[in-house]
Write a sequence for this structure.
């Protein structure tokens, strides 16, 4: 199933011709590649096995939507994190690190 390149949610309607983006908000945010990679690095630096999504959000001083989006990208696009739950991620889902 295709997901938004920014927020990582399942894509129902694509607003971009070049990328997969679910909304104009995501399209705007996706342009700031520097911010995206900075946030992904920040998530990676605080993540540990079994940490809850909301704990990551609380540890980082970033916008909640942006932080959860970065977590979804690391799970669904980069494959460096994963969840054991058979559901979409929410604030109470545990995150685990993929062993390389
Ligand atoms: Zn999106």
């Amino acid at each position: 199933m295709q997901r938004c390149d920014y927020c990582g949610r399942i894509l129902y309607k694509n607003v971009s011709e070049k990328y997969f983006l679910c909304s104009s908000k995501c399209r705007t945010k996706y342009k700031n590649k520097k911010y995206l990679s900075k946030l992904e690095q920040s998530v990676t630096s605080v993540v540990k096995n079994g940490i809850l999504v909301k704990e990551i959000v609380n540890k980082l001083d970033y916008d909640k939507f942006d932080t959860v989006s970065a977590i979804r990208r690391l799970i669904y696009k980069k494959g460096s994190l994963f969840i054991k739950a058979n559901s979409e991620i929410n604030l109470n889902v545990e995150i685990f690190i993929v062993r390389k």
Summary: The two ends are 24 Å apart (CA to CA). The beta strands are 51-52, 81-82, 94-97. The chain has four helices and three strands. Residues 10 and 96 are 21 Å apart (CA to CA).
